[in-house]
Spondin-like TSP1 domain-containing protein (Alexandrium catenella), 113 residues
Amino acid sequence: FHSGIGKPCHGASLKEVHPCNPSPTEDAPPICREPKQDCMLGQWSEWTACPVSCGGGNHERSRHILHPAANLGKPCSDVLMQTTPCAVAPCGEQACVDCLWGPWSDWGACTKC
């Protein structure tokens, strides 16, 4: 029933609540005796390969929740996926490449004396 009115709540879900600070003559409910468990995240995966060679794409990496928070522990608040840009050069244009010098050739014959 809805609080104080005496009418049924249709379509609502019910939740049982236990106080975790019982009086000296009461035992704490079992859930209150369990230790807190903070959220625990796994390690980051390796960055993915860039899906494109030009025009802009994204590397991605992710991680999973190893243990969700329980018993009023700290919830998961960090991100589970990260992205970073890759292959940002426009397509159809040659990307600038620094010149590389090759080895010297042998001396040639004199053309003028």
Remarks:
- The mean pLDDT is 80.
- The beta strands are 40-41, 57-62, 65-67, 81-86.
